[in-house]
Amino acid sequence: MDIKKTPLSFFLLIILFFIHNFCFAIDTISSAEVIRDSDSDTITSLNETFKLGFFSPGNSSNRYVGIWFSTLPGDIAIVWVANRDNPLADSSGVLRISSDGNLVVLDGRQKVVWTTNVSVGTNSSRAELMESGNLVLREVDSRGSNVGNTGRILWQSFEHPTHTLLQDMKFGANVRTGEKEIITSWKTDSDPSEGRFHMELEPLNIPQFVLWSGSQRHWRSGPWGGNTFLGVEGMSNLFLNGFSVNRADQEGYVFALLSYVKKPLFVRYVLNSIGRIAETRFDEGENRWVEDWSAPLTQCDFYGKCGSFGFCNLLSSPICSCLKGYEPKSIEEWNNGNWSSGCFRSSPLQCERNNTNSDEGKDDGFLKHEKMKVPDFVNSERAPDMEE
Ligand SMILES: *[C@@H]1O[C@H](CO)[C@@H](O)[C@H](O)[C@H]1NC(C)=O
Ligand SMILES: *[C@@H]1O[C@H](CO)[C@@H](O)[C@H](O)[C@H]1NC(C)=O
Ligand SMILES: *[C@@H]1O[C@H](CO)[C@@H](O)[C@H](O)[C@H]1NC(C)=O
Ligand SMILES: *[C@@H]1O[C@H](CO)[C@@H](O)[C@H](O)[C@H]1NC(C)=O
Ligand SMILES: *[C@@H]1O[C@H](CO)[C@@H](O)[C@H](O)[C@H]1NC(C)=O
Ligand SMILES: *[C@@H]1O[C@H](CO)[C@@H](O)[C@H](O)[C@H]1NC(C)=O
């Protein structure tokens, strides 16, 4: 009896091994494969950090194709959405490589609701979900023989972020072509379509992050100071490195790159639907996502709160004051708590004074101010020391 049983359980083990492989270890979609919502199909990155498949956000019953952290308990953390502006109403959707080589999402009537929309040429292609969370569409030569990561990259989700920045994702702008990456908030927690807020890296001569509310500047990080953004506290300070900003390369591309020394580390920067950019980390001790940092948070964080030549201090009342030598442009607005018009210079500079009579005002000099952002659109100049 026992002798008869052994080959059977051995056989079962082999089947289980194959089922396990089939369900969890597949990280690519080739031309023959179809990911069906109705079968709850997903693909999983090599070490199972990320999953790609269909999901419904929040209270919505709409179906979307997205990428999320796969192994973490609790709420699934969506990091990318394909058809964010074009939801599927039921679970008849499929994700596949179309006959033109693009990765597409089709509804039950075979209508394209989303496509990578690139030109593939005569070769075929294959999509792969990388361990970083990047979904990469690669060229596969006509014999389908280039196994591994050798084919030319035709499209990648890291170049088309939705509302989340992940480690190893380059986020930037090209100063020559004007092309840039942006992240855009969801409309609500149950609706991933494009909301009111977006963020970009502004490639000024010193780059900075700028968060927009519609066409209005809403928050800015302040310029990159070499180790951190000058004007934010606590951003990426929890870990070694964090953001680094790279100056324009040969092609004119300026980008910020989020990377930590400690890996694997589950961390993401999310622009949420109320217009806040937040650093969120999975805390293995607490077994949940925790927010380490976010902005804008206080009244003083909002762009131009106290207007030009004004400054903001949460501990004073009112919170806005004019710099020394400046007065409110409109006393009435100022007294009503509308500080946006800012301040004007009330005592002329030395070079503006006509009178050569020496006792009419002191020589111009510099005042040191701390805990303030430098002005927007600032230029930098290297000086050997303070005196200079
Ligand atoms: C996957 O995990 C193995 C074992 O922990 C590790 O050696 C390998 O570098 C990981 N691969 C990736 C792509 O993260
Ligand atoms: C879902 O609906 C409940 C009840 O209306 C609400 O409290 C909750 O915030 C909603 N969740 C999301 C993600 O919108
Ligand atoms: C694909 O790209 C072309 C050219 O950029 C554009 O005109 C077209 O609308 C796009 N199609 C879809 C379905 O996004
Ligand atoms: C097809 O792919 C192979 C290998 O990736 C490449 O060498 C070749 O140039 C490609 N052909 C075309 C027409 O793109
Ligand atoms: C504040 O003043 C500015 C400039 O006069 C005006 O455009 C804006 O509407 C005012 N804001 C509010 C909230 O009243
Ligand atoms: C300086 O002189 C010019 C021309 O006479 C005049 O317009 C200006 O108001 C004077 N400035 C001050 C600060 O007195």
From TrEMBL:
> Signal peptide span per the entry?
1-25
Pfam families referenced in this protein's UniProt entry, alphabetically? B_lectin, S_locus_glycop
**Gene Ontology BP terms:** recognition of pollen
Q: Does the keyword Cytoplasm apply?
A: no
Does the UniProt entry include the keyword Signal? yes
Q: Which residues form the Bulb-type lectin domain?
A: 26-150
Q: Where is the composition biased (Basic and acidic residues)?
A: 359-374
Ranges for the region named Disordered are 353-388
Keywords, in A-Z order: Disulfide bond, Signal
* Functional summary from the UniProt entry: Involved in sporophytic self-incompatibility system (the inability of flowering plants to achieve self-fertilization).
Name used for this protein in its record: Bulb-type lectin domain-containing protein
**The species this protein was found in:** Coptis chinensis
Could you read off the lineage of the organism from its UniProt record? Eukaryota, Viridiplantae, Streptophyta, Embryophyta, Tracheophyta
